[in-house]
User: Fold these one by one.
Assistant:
Number 1:
Amino acid sequence: MGQIAQQQGGETGTAIDPAAPLLLFDSGVGGLSVLDEVRRLLPQAPVIYAADTAGLPYGSKSEAEIAARVSGLLGRMTERLHPRLVCIACNTASTIALAAVRDVLEVPIVGTVPAIKPAAALTQTGVIGLLGTAQTIRQAYVDRLEAEFASGKTLLRHAAPELVGAAEATLRGEPVDPAVFARAAAGLLGQPGGAAIDTVVLACTHFPLVSAQLAQAFGPGVRFVDGAAGIARRIAFLTHGQAFARREPDLALFTARPGGPEPWRALEPSLAARGLKRITVF
Ligand code: DGL
């Protein structure tokens, strides 16, 4: 403890600067649900939170566009910001681009995987719901997780892109029509066999940010599972023994189109509440 550890998964033998941040990346505020868990385990870790606001939402973009955008941005961010580890705190980006990003970056990369395995262990009825973006729910990555961890169970999937905007609005302090959450619940419960769902995988990092509203829409007897705590544990494992020293308040970065909207202004209280007290445009 207290020593400067050797980098894992990168250039072995290179001492890590204790101020080197963890870089958490998402298309918007969704990755803050992951940050909340990282704070619990590693409160002393310096963090840069990067939101690709100019590219939000990812869920309706093509796979090629997401892969190119995420690899390009993370390449540039890693060069400029020297993180000790990158976390793609976004299911859509991870299920599509994780392998490509790992191929080009030398720092350890932690991805976000839909929490099908823990959901399969928890369900009593054997019927699991999965809410994600349109891109995530149709990824072969999800098919593989289903085959590996949920064979013998029923996995019903529903794309709920409206919840992404709902989470963004909620963190900006704006009211959201409860019908948005009711539609997401109906999209799963209304499917053949859906009435037996007792466990729902929140396979988009935005969705845990509105879990209270979703709980109300789904009603009692349905529990939610997401990957945030597991991701935080993985980050703690990969940085075990490394020294952390926060030399300035943690930073939030937003991509922006010239002359485009500046959503981070209304997000300032939600960001500050999570220790992100500096905001800049990338
Ligand atoms: N937060 C992202 C995820 O986990 C997706 C939101 C978007 O559509 O950009 O999938």
Number 2:
Amino acid sequence: MTTRAVYPGSFDPVTNGHLDMIERGLNVFDHLIVAVAVNADKRCLFTVEERLDLIRRSLGDRPNVAVDTFSGLLIEYMRKRQVRVVLRGLRAISDFEYELQMALMNRRLAPEVETFFMMAGESYSYLSARIVKEIASMGGEVQGLVPPAALEALRRKFGGTR
Ligand code: ADP
């Protein structure tokens, strides 16, 4: 039996923290689906196509990782793909409240779906796509926080980033 999990998120853009989660997730699951949320009311810097492209380019060729998009309820997507595990990362305590709420709500909506949490790697526990965008937008250095493809894309968006 192969174990599969869906790793959902905005990935706006993909960071080294996300890549670490994927890498470590593959120590637990045979196959991962990285699912980029198409969320109409969440303003993203990158389009869905750009976000998918950055993830694909950063992951390289990996037969055990698929990259996909979803819109609407995550649990509907889980049912459609017939996957029962959601993979999520926990950074600082501030992630906990939101993640608990989401996990319990998803369980209420779909009791067959389990949320699996992994602690952020210690080098990435302070890293979020939001803070990367904030720093890059003000010309700060984000090298080492995001993969090269995302670094290049941020430089193109903000020009001033060194
Ligand atoms: P962000 O919070 O960086 O904008 P997403 O909304 O794309 O990222 O998050 C997708 C998932 O990845 C969430 O479960 C989030 O907790 C997790 N995640 C994001 N950044 C990290 C990180 N640096 N380390 C571990 N998990 C992370």
